[in-house]
Design goal:
Its cofactor is Zn(2+). It contains 28 helices and 29 strands. By secondary structure, the chain is α+β, with helices and mostly antiparallel strands. Strands 1, 2, 4, 5, 8, 11, 13 and 14 form an eight-stranded mixed beta sheet that branches. Strands 16-17-18-20-19 form a five-stranded mixed beta sheet. The protein has a four-stranded mixed beta sheet with strand order 27-24-23-29. Helix 23 packs parallel to helix 26. The structure holds ligand BES and zinc ion.
Amino acid sequence: MGKGFYISRSAGRVGLLLGAAAAVTIVALAIVYAQEKSRNAAADDGGGVNGTTAPAFTPTPMASNDSWDQYRLPDTLRPEYYNLTLWPRLHMGQDGMYIFTGSSSAVFTCVKETDLILIHSKMLNLTTIDGHLARLTAVGLATAPAVEATWLQMETQYLVIQLSGVMTVGGSYQLDTEFQGELADDLEGFYRSEYVEDGVKRVVATTQMQPTDARKAFPCFDEPAMKAVFHVTLIHEPGTVALSNGMEKDTVNTTIEGTDVTVTSFEPTKRMSTYVLAFIVCDFAYVSAPKGSDNILIRIWARRKAIEQGQGEYAHNVTGPILKFYESYFNVTYPLSKSDQIALPDFNAGAMENWGLVTYRETALLYDPQFSSNGNKERVLTVISHELAHMWFGNLVTLRWWNDLWLNEGFASYVEYLGANHAEPTWNIKDTIVLNDVHRVFAVDALNSSHPLSSREDEINMPTDISQLFDSISYSKGASVLRMLSEFLSEPVFVKGLSTYLNQFAYSNTVYTDLWDHLQQAVDSTPSLSLPHSVNDIMNRWILQMGFPVVTIDTSTGELSQNHFLLDSESVVEKASEFNYEWYIPITWKKAGVGQEPFWLLQKTDTHSPLTATRNEWVLANLNITGYYRVNYDSDNWERLLNQLNSDHQLIPVINRAQIVDDTFNLARAKILNITLALRTTVYLSHERELMPWESAIDNLSHFFLLFDRSEVYGPMQTYFKKLITPLFSYFQRITLNWTRVPSSHTDQYNQVNAIWLACKTGLDSCQDLTKGWFKQWMQDPANNPIHPNLRTTVYCSAIAAGGAEEWDFGWEMFKNASIASEADKLRYALACSKQPWLLNRYLKYTLDPTKIRKQDVTSTIVHIARNVVGQTLAWDFVRARWESFLTQYGGSSFSFAHLISGVTKRFSSRFELQQLQQFMKDNENIGFGSGAFALEQSIASTTAKLKWLAENKETVLSWFISQSK
Ligand code: BES
Ligand code: ZN
């Protein structure tokens, strides 16, 4: 029993596959989809609490013990290599469908006796060969048992092959399949992307396999530890380009079933996981330079127009240096002969680290000095740096299972700053990890609904379990704790351990403790370094328990203590931790401006720490926020720090100025500190010109906007912020010679944007006149945009907010005509700033039409609208009303559901909104929340916390703002 459905089409013919007549394909695909659909439909109508059939995206746990009902592959077979041929059709069939056909031979070794083959296959229509969905032959000496039955197990996404007898341990076998699939525009597996060039629609066939969609392109053992060598051949229309992980080896023009085709075969890949495979057929051009001394061919691919306009140059310029940097940082050479990177018009994530063929969203790879901002440029740099880091950490050495995803993504998210810094050493990029990752994830990890970095292997099974792991905890907390580790080990020790780890496990798989072991060996061989505990014991406390500590320092006695920091002080932590929510904490500190000897806080309290201060000295801990914790002091020390900020803020390191603002605001949100103390840390900002503290303040003030922009606090708050930002605005007006020059430093360029953003938002007339004037000038002469790219997002937003339909429609026209995706993105963002409900509602509707808003941009557009106080309710209603159809349309595993839920509910802070959230959860418990389930819990938790906080603090905040405006 337990068998899913079984396509039994007789008269399968070997070799039919590649030339499969469209009609056959369509009928067959229709069968597959009908089956999948009927499951969904059953689930939808099945309704009720006890609906018997689970939908595809939230399957009920399997009762059966049959191995085909388990989501994990058995350990009986080990793939060795695949010979894979794919033929995507870039023209629509008569039925209006795009398809691909393919054939694959998977050669594997039997490592445990079995009479069953389970191989992943999803939404593929398999052609019958000799009466079955696959054919088994022996390789070498063994003889293959006969195939008895084959069927597709839809829920677990397997093709099951039941044999009449067992395979021999040590024997090699070959499994042949032939198949067709739809080349849909669903951004998953082998999919279709479209764009228009010179008035002609063009189609690209491309892939996104991670985490579990290689099985949607061909039957394969689709788990990261099932590494194999892939021999790929692509069949494509003459004149188009075919790319894959390996270098093009051979190109032959021929005819298959009456069609002229080019057959391109590629060098075999290294031994690697299925999720880093990539196949692309397109009509793109590329930039490259003569190979360097290391003989690696670097190519940047994109639409022909984009390449002609030089949009690939920047990516091309930084790739070589970044690859070189990693070769020396990891002490392992880049093992492939080429590095292709390609910008795709439709792409769900930001970028994907396919080995040798990295795929990107256009905005993450293309740069045009005429249109792109410095922020766009930095984005290109850091995304490239992130993905290239994965070439070693992730691709060469791969974690055994997805439960360790945090180490893969956290690692790349940490070292991306190092690679980027190497390419642009004047940008101060390394510091910004504090804002982008540490502070950002503190906000999530301080909730009771957070979760530990590391999950147990047996907790992560279904594709949705896996997708949910791609969250800010894995990325940003992962990056933050690895940075802390590298800091307390010192970089040379960290890279030494890293390098032996990568060398030992090259082309194979690991668990995170393998890395700890290698780092420990590096520690052990460094006599000058002494740690209070092993790397394993120190790190376990950071990765096996959720959250992080707040260290409280009493500088009058030197007493130090740690507590689990929770934003909702009343929440009861039900998840037990074997470490009692205590951490081993590296304490770095300064006293009266002088750096002191670091030490460890190893218990809940330390009554004899050296952290004491007398009357005029201040103590500052967690220098440059290299530790993943917040700090609180006795009130005298806070006062001394405040005095220092107000008298000469430069004596406090710039990152710690940002920290003081962020820590005090968050300690106040957690009711550990009085909110007025936090607000007082902002007063000195009228003298602050540096980016980091302003960014930190703006993050926290934005939180205030969300909390108060619908309440009576709004007016006095605006007045105060306006007063605060005016000096910064005037400063930039001055140094840019009345906005005619670009500030020279990268960070000043960002801070100029902050100045304009906040000044316009708080209604500073001179700011609004400036932005409206620029926009008007542009509307009068659309071919000559007078606004500097760095300022466009902010200026467009402010002008569209101040304007009406005319401004909006102009923005929309410009959006449609933009020749670079980053310019289109700026407009797409700004269009969400309108204050007219009807324009926002119309815009929301546009997100349902992929010819207006690409699917990849749907969630972020809705979230932008929700950020706007006028759009908030419209967006929330829009999402709730269509939740079910969103889920069915975009699948359960897509990256963005979490973003959608957290985005549209970010402003929630009232009891009524909390009820709506709870109702939403109840209404949809049957169909589920896809990869947004965590996010919904987090949103309920944070709304609850805000509600309580507001009840106690709103009046205080209001009167403080009023007192400041006098
Ligand atoms: N491996 C991911 C891409 C990915 C994300 C695939 C989610 C499947 C699901 C890639 O390395 C990545 O992390 N990309 C980031 C950009 C990066 C700079 C943080 C992304 O896509 O946002
Ligand atoms: Zn990544």
